[in-house]
Every structure is written in structure tokens, then in C-alpha cells.
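Priority: low. Protein: Aldose 1-epimerase family protein. Input follows.
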Amino acid sequence: MTESINGVPDAGGPITGAQYEIAAGPYRAVVTEAGAGLRELTCEGRPLVLSHGADEPVPVALGQVLVPWPNRIDRGRYAYGGRIHQLDLSEPKNDCAIHGLVRHATWTEADRERDRVRMRHRLMGHAGYPYRLDLEVAYALDAERGLTVTVSARNTGTRTAPYGHGAHPYLTVDEPIDDCTVTVTADRWLPVDDRMIPSGPPEDVAGTPYDLRDGRKLGGQSIDNAFTGLRRDADGRAWIRLTGGGRTTALWVDAAHPWLEVYTADQAPGDRRRRGLGAEPMTCPPNAFATGIDVIDLEPGAHAGGSWGIMSE
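Result:
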């Protein structure tokens, strides 16, 4: 028997919910009802991001949307609006709150065409985040330019809310990343402690293993750090490129994203380990709610947003 929740029939299905497939030219993508995540992205049938099964728990945050903060908050504790807030510790191993509140939530299809889908979610107050946001994530494919993702948030509550967003795609050329060249157009990198919390201000990449501005073979280097001081092209975009096997997969971010997290997938399970490069657009750095760095003060009725994308070059 088909059951109904809030008047919407549900005949059952995979644990990531409905699968929204879009396509344009050689590109194809699949977006999930759970978390509005990017489950697949291919060009001419070849993967541009690490994917997961529709009925598989999402490993290592593959393709997830990170709202209202990306990365970690130390001990889940921060001060804002004259109050101390305590978030649930969603990463007990490091005693942190990680990657926001919506990556496993149910999102609703707002509209869809062959080459695009727009997803919506209303974030109500949570423990440690007593604010209300209306969220949208739009995925659009273009036969020449690949994928563009646009994230937007509007404060529909009664008080100013701290806000940031990010995303968690893993770029791939379907080769081990040790054999690939990585390019990150960033002048500074952010050191972290053994709990992955920033241990000081950003440092110049010059003369360090984190200088990837001109492209360098990754080898066995492990990276799980944020980069900033992004160098931008004439269109205002900063880039991460992964090149190997005669292919390049590239991610760009607009000016709303002054931070990029780079992660070499060392903790990815099974055959995904070091097969993709976490290339994460972020509007603010790790632990931003605690430090206040680049946190957006989203007033009632106000809007924040930004775009990023992935293409095959």
C-alpha cells in the first residue's frame, strides 16, 4: 500500500530519495532528494566527480551541500547575538560540529527541465542554531560550460543569523590522484591542529608543499586544508584543476567564495581512497562561527548566495 506524508505519495525507494537526472550535450548529472546532493556528474560517460549508490549511505560527504556552515566548529560552541550557542557534535571523533544541518535533510523539487533542477528546503531552528532560513540550490548543465551550481539563502526568521555555505564534490579523472597534477590558484593556506581546527592565521604558500599555483604532481602528499588569497581570472573565478590520464576536471568558484578546501580523500572508504580530490567551495573558513572570520550576518529578509561549477577541459 502506498502511504502519504503531508499529502505526498511515497511508494518507497532508495535511502537518498528521489533521483533528479539532468543532461545537456555530453554532460549528465544526478541530484538527490536527500540533501540536494550531487550524486553523479559525467561527461561523455566518464566521471567528473566521485559518486555513490542511490541506496548507499553517503560516504565522506560526497557531493553534499553544507549549510549554514561548511567544515568544522570547534566543540560545536560559538557566541553570536549576545548568546552562547551549543550545536550537536556531529563529528564525535574530533569533538566538532561539522558541515551544517541540511546535508541529510529532505529537499523539495521546485522546478525541473531537461538540463536543470532547482531544489528547496526550509531550515527551521535547531539546537545551537535558533534561526530560520529558506534555502535553494539550483543545478544547471550547459553543453559547453558543464555544471553551474547556485546556492541561495533568505532569512525568513525574526533575528539576524550567522551564515555560511559550502559544497563537497570530489573531482576525479578516474585515475589515482597520486599520479595526477593538481593546480590551486591560491596564495595562502590555513594550518590546522590534530583535530582539524585552524591553529593560526593563513600562511604564504611560497616555498611550501602547498604551493600548487603552477600545477604540481601530487605524489603521496596528504592535504586537508583550506586555501585563500585566491587568484581570479578575468571573469572573477578561481580554479582547482585535476589533470591525469589525458583529462582535466576543473572546478571554479565565484567571488562569493573566498575559500577553497582541498582534501586528498585519505579517509575515503574502499576503492574511493585517493581516487578523487575534495575541492570544496566555501564562503568562510573552518571554525568561522567561533572566530567570526567571513561569517555573513544575514538580517531578517536578507539574501545571500553564490555560484560554483565543474567542467571537463
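The first strand starts at residue 3 and ends at 5. The helical segments are 288-291.
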